[in-house]
Amino acid sequence: MVRAIYTAAMGMLSDAFKLDSTANNLANVDTAGYKKDIPTFSAYQERSVYLSSDRKTPIGTLPYSCVVDRVYIDPSEGALLYTANPLDLAIVGSGYFAVQRQNEVFYTRAGNFKLDPEGYIVNADGLRLLDVNAQPIVFQHGYSIDEEGFVRDGAGNTVTRIAVYSFESERDLRKYGYTLFSPTEESGPPVAANNFRILSGHVELSNVNAVTEMVKMIELQRHFEITQKVVLAEDEMFAKLFSQVATLR
Amino acid sequence: MMISLYSAATGMWAQQYKLDTVSNNLANVDTTSYKKLRAEFQDLVYQYYKNAGTPTAQNSIIPTGIYVGHGVRLSATTRIFTIGNMEHTGNALDLAIAGDGFFQIQLQDGRIAYTRDGSFKIDSEGRIVTANGLTLVPNIVVPNDAVAINVSPDGIVSAEMQDGTVQNLGTIVLVRFVNPAGLKAIGDNLYVQTVASGEPIEGTPNQDGFGAIQQGYLEKSNVDVVKEMVDMIIAQRAYELNARTIQTADDMLRTVSTLKR
After folding, report:
1. ipTM
2. Is the pLDDT of residue B1 over 60?
């Protein structure tokens, strides 16, 4: 009984989830290195439908419900902003910087780095940027960073090279928050990237497109309202059923 | 309920903070040696409803998780120490540092503060002081009968006397920090050192990477008005977007409340 009410309610819950996801994207419209979330939905509890005359001939399936299937990351590149700050590093092409917190390594595209008092290159939370030998990088006066990630001293000698890693499936990375990612079984392990450029003096902005997120929000809101009408319509039908059809005369 | 309400609220708060930063930068667009601030953001923690790799009843695993983020947070306000434009003033006691370095200034409580504001004056006792009367370190005293003061690019201050002789008055020492962005601004164009900035490294102007002293020039603010205006527009629009999210969430909740009549 009242299956349509539950189906509609599941649809409304899916819309609420979609709004939560969109809200997070819009809140991070100005977060450097942020990658937007895309939720996908799937039909749930599909059942075969039979011809009503014999109840044996299948005529297709009918899903009873809709649920959140998965959320994945859209790894597309954000726009680059020129800042003139030499420790703002942006990766053009695929790849992630590796930063270390104690024994854990996280991956990020938020390239707004700073120096700590000991001269190490760190992110806003003090996590140290790693070089190709997985060692933190000391940045001294007169140093510069070239497009291939080589850190050079004032005389042009190579000091070290910034590590840039790529993943087989970037959209399956796990978001840790604080614009950090960690690899999962599905994303594959980090491998040295080879098709990238590092632009010093630039930051990569969020890849959230405000227009599409707004459209998505309007769409889900209207969908929510329409689905609510289904609940009301079903309820009215029952009201009619109970109050009129079942009346004994 | 509805995480979106709270996520959007963090977004509005973050953009409010960005506007505060932009307005302070714009207010200091003409402040000598002012260094602009930049608000930086990070996404907040994620709530995982289902982790990737969770086994399902059908003897398979879920390839990716279901998660939702909780909005945005302010991660840092970074001070950008790029060098501002040099303005020619012709005033003998206006000194600009063309490159890295800070002047050292003695505060009234005896601590040392650091500044790039080189608009110095001479007080009644002949000492070189800032506009607020704080003395330059090491202090240089200009004799009463000096007719001209000359500061060389490497910081040597000399005075030309009435009788035509030249007297050496001392040398200006500059300091540098590993992480100048870690300095704490105390207003009046002054900074003090913190744990984050590291210890001051002393040096002679025009040597070892320190900037040369340019007499008769002042370093202007490094605020770029166009960029700040663009940031202001972005902050306003992003604020509106997040306000719109709150409105949508509210509308949806109202829809729910009309389900039962």
Report:
1. 0.83
2. no
